[in-house]
Amino acid sequence: MTEIIRLRKGLDIKLLGTPAKELTQAGQAQAYGLCPDDFTGVTPKPVVKEQQTVKAGEALFIDKNHPEVKFVSPVSGEVVAVNRGARRKVLSIVVKPDAEQKYVEFGTKSVQSLSGEEIKSALLEAGLFAFFRQRPYDVIANPSDAPRGIFVSAFDSKPLAPDFEFVLQGNELDFQTGLSALAKIAPTTLGISATQTSETLTKAKNVDLYAFKGAHPAGNVGVQINNIKPVNKGETVWTIDPEAVIFIGRLFNKGITDMTRVIAVAGEEIAKPAYQKVILGAQIGSIVDGNLNRSEHIRIINGNVLTGVKASKEDFLGAFSNMISVIPEGDDVNEFMGWIAPRFGQYSVSRTFFSWLTGSKKYSIDARIKGGERHMIMSNEYDKVFPMDIFPEYLIKAIITGNIDKMEAYGIYEVAPEDFALCEFVDSSKLELQRIVREGLNNLRAEMA
Amino acid sequence: MSLRNYLDKIKPNFEEGGKLHAFRSLYEGFESFLYVPNTTSRNGVNIHDSFDSKRMMIMVVIALCPALLFGMYNVGYQNYAMAGLLDQATFWNKFWFGFLAVLPRLIVSYVVGLAIEFTVAQWKHEEIQEGYLVSGFIIPLIVPATCPLWILAIAVAFSVIFAKEIFGGTGMNFLNVALITRAFIFFAYPTVISGDTVWVVNHTICGLGANLDAVTAATPLGAAATGVCSGFSVMDEFLGFIPGSVGETSVIAIALGALLLLYTGIASWKTMFSVFAGGIIMALVFNTWGPEGNMAAAMPWYEHLCVGGFCFGAVFMATDPVTSARTECGKWIYGFLIGAMAIIIRVMNPGYPEGMMLAILLMNCFAPLIDYCVVQRNVNRRAKRIAK
């Protein structure tokens, strides 16, 4: 019997535009791009030049500090651009796909016969190691570390997020192979939702299984780790998205780096919210074109509404994005006397609005901040949506004041910016908590190096 | 949308280099007062809850309105009652008298306080923080209706600058701004806020009310401190027909505000509940073991809650999220100690018949320590985990 962990804190934001459980055909992307910024903590060094042809699975750039970590092309084709920004920072490397895809052959291998080290080097070679993130610091993992464990969350509880059971369909075998491979590297824990029924998940082999019940952020891997076995100072755990586990399974079962994934295309401004099968890095225009309700005053988000970033049609599906969300931008909305008007159509967790009375009604929420930034005024706002054994307010204050001892004492090693996304949503002081946490983690990492 | 267009048209004047740039904070304040800002998020979450600090502060102001309106009525009522003219005065006579007596104090409080806020916002290139909307509303409610305007103005300026702005503004202050205003008057000009001659307005206003000479009307607490019985029934004290600071007399009016604050969740029910619990328990302790002949010690617990600023402090000032304890466990301790301390000061120190103000300010100082202990438990647990 799987242990069920019940989380009482959290919030499921009732947002319009839930994706229907059907797979729609995506348009053919004209370009695929890999953005080094998606891989937090990496100093990219391009290893390809423009006009060079690459196969799927061939490195586009590597990490300067850990050259063995490769970031590989999702498709075969011609490198058409290495885009750089200020101070020659690499923004993206763009590949124009071949009509017929060619893959680097790594050869099929039986996971059972390989050691942990062999698996690690196979993943490094095929560019899939780049999908491991580590706690502390929520950065791309360091291959020379020996992690205490690897954690995978098999469900995403963020607003409008894809249902992993749907994504899993047809990939069951690869997923299990991937889990078995992870288990060879370090003890692996799979967190599933108590509502998931797929036997691939509920009867997953070679892993410790925990089931979670409760609202978002129950699906956040950091919350799961904190409730199973928190990260202590000096320890390292690795986390990896369940979609990347499928990539790993494919590598061993098929011998290629195949980064085809099923993503959700959702949100109020999407005409037909549903799922699409795409290859990682696809240009976003190819995913949303023809499916938008309007062309102006909308916000296309690379990822989900909480942790995703604002994007344009020319941007590329992020390496860690499992969805594209499109919501109204709201820059054309002028609400008169918002501080006193009843604002029936507005969603809020606060009872100064009426949305708490409307049960399961779904709301249109646009990208407005709807208030000015203030110092922290209300107490207990964050705690209500933060199911970890941490005082979020105090941790945030320690980060703002740059007090490293306090950050450590208050548990910064256990958190990632995404864990604060809900706090940021409910915050009446409108502080940019995810940015604050990211900067805190970066400073701490620089300090500890 | 013509108003919107007008705002957009004049906006350039207030921006950097515009001729009215010195009033940028004022423009922004009014613009965001009229329209919810439609700036959209640049990083971090793409969607935000509709709740913001403006709406929060306004809810508290709304919650304070019953106390203000009743307070105005009571100011008139006390004047007519002292003059023995109660049966001749209509409801509106009393209300307008009180309205005219209290309004200048409300205006002075807002004008002085907001002027400082606007100046600081302009100077620090920040948005105007709306915290003073609440403080400025509370201040006239916790002073006598006779408080001279110039003293009020000095006190407001002192507390806004030295209790709030030097710490960084709303959210960074550790002492309740409204209470510091009262404490400033209490210690700098004690004669206008204590004794038995300040609680009733003793002159006519615009032809309303009556001129009284040598009026003495002690608050029930002031009377108890000097060992006399005030002669008010508990029912009067509950309804609020007693002399006292403008907004603090009526339990019913305060209870209406409390309901709104608890319903919207803006005030913590834990703090509020534990203030009352602390007060009741300490009153019972004094009832049983109190010094002989001390009227305040013998006062039953329900009367302690009805008189003075106990209810007002418990509902509107102990629950101030900025100066109160911020951890949930801390709120129980913080509230309980406020309630208990208020009664102790009332009973043990006849010089300060009203203990609530000092109790809250004292616990404001201790709130960070309480929180520290609560958070430290979490820290120790984390440290122990490593040691294992």
How do you describe this structure in short?
Chain A has 449 residues and is of the alpha/beta class. Chain A has helices at residues 116-126, 164-168, 172-185, 199-202, 221-228, 242-254, 284-288, 392-400, 404-409, 421-426, 433-448; strands at 3-6, 23-24, 32-34, 44-46, 53-54, 59-63, 70-72, 77-84, 90-97, 133-135, 139-140, 149-153, 188-193, 208-213, 237-240, 260-266, 274-279, 298-302, 309-311, 323-328.
Report what the structure shows.
The complex is a heterodimer of chains A (449) and B (388). By secondary structure, chain A is of the alpha/beta class. Chain A folds into 3 domains: 1-261, no CATH class; 262-328; 369-448, no CATH class. Helices cover 22% and strands 20% of the residues of chain A. Chain A contains 11 helices and 20 strands. In chain A, a hairpin with a 3-residue loop joins strand 10 (133-135) and strand 11. In chain A, helix 1 (116-126) packs across helix 3 and helix 3 (172-185) crosses helix 6. Chain B has one domain. Chain B starts with a helix and ends with a helix. In chain B, helix 3 runs parallel beside helix 5 (131-138) and helix 15 runs antiparallel to helix 16. Chain B is globular, with a radius of gyration of 23 Å. Helix content of chain B is 62%, strand content 0%. Classes of the chains: A alpha/beta (449), B mainly alpha (388). At the A-B interface, helix 10 and helix 11 of A face helix 2, helix 3 and helix 16 of B.
